[in-house]
Design goal:
The protein has 10 helices and 7 strands. It has 248 residues and is α/β, with parallel strands linked by helices.
Length: 248
Amino acid sequence: MIGISEKNIREKNFHNELQSKISGRFENIFYKALANAWDDFFDFLKKNSNNLELLDYGCGVGPITKKVVSYNPKMITGIDISEVSILKAKSELENSKNKVRLYVDNCEKTKFNKNSFDIIFGLGILHHLEFSKCLDEIDRILKPGGSLLFIEPVGTNPFINFYRKLTPRARSRDEHPLIKKDFLLIKKKFKNVKIKYYGFLTLLFFPFYKNPRKSILFRILKDLDQTLFKTKIFRFLAWSVLIEAQKI
């Protein structure tokens, strides 16, 4: 891989080890609190992927690629620094290989030519990377007017940050949930930036609902969250954001 750093190697080793385990992470139980973020993420891709070149940026074992391939893109390329993840993704997507290309690659410095993709998307990947480097690389390989779409954790909720400090082995050493300076950098490098916040009350009350898509309580909580997030102070209590932007 081109230009791989010590930090990149640590991330690669962490995710190789993670994906080699039989059981999943304990923290996966919390992700149902972000069901509405995923709905918005996939809704965007469903509406905008037809006959386009897509890049699943940090594709992991391929769950997003597997879903988005049904949206009729011209081609989906998936990259990840973890060889174990790509091996699993290739196995999982064997039946879609005419529409999917999967490579082990460094997201901070990929092998692609400039202006290669119409949409670049990812789930929880940017906060594992050198932020300015990965934004520059996304800008380089996006086509003019192309879009980026990412769900990323926010690093401003003190209670979530305290949990992170208590559970360091649950995440990689170098990951950095996004803070104000990161959002300012996105707005500097891209245009039409939209940032939507998720996961305050839906996370706080996650023990009280099981399937968020069948839960009346979840629907009430997610709507209350969106009302609260209209006020700036409550955005600091969000768990995650959906970032949408275009190449300048």
